[in-house]
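Why show two proteins at once? Because comparison is the fastest way to build intuition. When a single record is shown, students tend to memorize it. When two are placed side by side, the eye starts asking what differs. So, the first record is below.
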Amino acid sequence: MFWFLAGVEEQLPELLEDERGWTGVDVDYHPPRVERLWRQLGDIRVYLHRIHYCDPGEALFHPHPWPSAMKVLKGQYKMAVGYGGGDTPPPVAARLLLGPGSEYEMTNQDAWHYVRPTEEGGTVLTLMVTGLPWKLKRWVPKSEAPLKPLSDVARSYMFTEFRFHYPRNGS
């Protein structure tokens, strides 16, 4: 997945120019709140995240329905990692502190994690790429209600921030 992440980073300055190609959602059904822009590139989905602070013990410990790779661009978060099947959170196996430039991948369907920004009132910006969903369906937590669209103000802020991190040549 790191290879896909690097490839998307090369394309991101151009991809950010076409704002209509991105879908925005406000993931607010469980802390931490995540403002998300995403778009499909063949079998890869690209996500831009702005993750909001939440109090210790509130962050959602969850598996992903697909392999993924992430890069922290701005801010810092604590991440816990665990491993286990089913829908019961496994024990935490490791805790990490990740800041700008940190990258990691989750390549097993039974890997779990949570992320929690460390600065009270602050946010963290991340880039995430995902592959095709696991062949065996994987339980993942979901909102009972449809996710709300991202506000125009949040969209504008995110495009500005991500363009700062991935400027076009000559910009």
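Second record. Ask yourself what differs from the first in the token line.
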Amino acid sequence: MTRRNLSLAANLVALILALWAFWWEPSSLVVRSYRLEIPNWPNSVAGLRVAVLADLHIGSPYRGLDSLAQTVARTNAEKPDLIVMPGDFIGATFLRHHVSPEEFAPVLSGLRARLGVWAVLGNHDWWDLPDDVRRELESHGIGVLENRAEPLGEFWLAGIGDFWESQHDVPTALENVSEGAPLLAFTHNPDVFVDTPRKINLLVAGHTHGGQVWFPLLGRMVVPSRYGERFAIGHIVEDGRHLFVSPGIGTSIIPVRFLTSPEVSILEIHSVRGSS
């Protein structure tokens, strides 16, 4: 192959990778299911399906109201028992256009789950319009759990405030939870995990976007966490405690994703064999 042909091939590969990272992947959406086996999760609610919609960043490139409506439809098609949204509703890239909570909350009100649709606020919500986001979500039937818990039949759901911009008050969030009751919790930033007790069966978070860009062997390029890649993505188990971090749907700062697809995460929670 001549030098000219090599140069053309290299340019073509670079163009394909750029289109992949700046258009095809960030504009896509996958629905990915995970089977999580959680200690002390009761058999009576084994198989609980929880949809996680993290980091919607509405108004960022590829994440307008039409895209949001498609996300709602695809989530509903999975027939989840419960939907949690771990914050960052507000767009966060330098190319974003402003979409107000008054515009996006009515679209999110179309989400359906028998145990409800619940949210916490993320750092971008706190930086921009926290009162408006909370008000509009609640007025459209979406419960906002900031450092408090709600009983949902045979288990409790707790929302913990954002690690960066809110008082992530874990004791207050859990103070009304019945002793020994099964407990799911969710928050925006997974760094909260190091401060959570064993009584939380599973903590769900977002915020990291899975780094947005992942190169095999090199790792994830930017993970906004004081712990690096430790809590970047997926199911993490430490000292018997369980965390799930969704890669989320939108993008932050730069509208790029590579090998870290936007995702509606469906968690199917099962009992560890031998648990109650």
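One difference worth noting in the second protein: Residues 29-271 form a domain with the Purple Acid Phosphatase; chain A, domain 2 fold (CATH 3.60.21).
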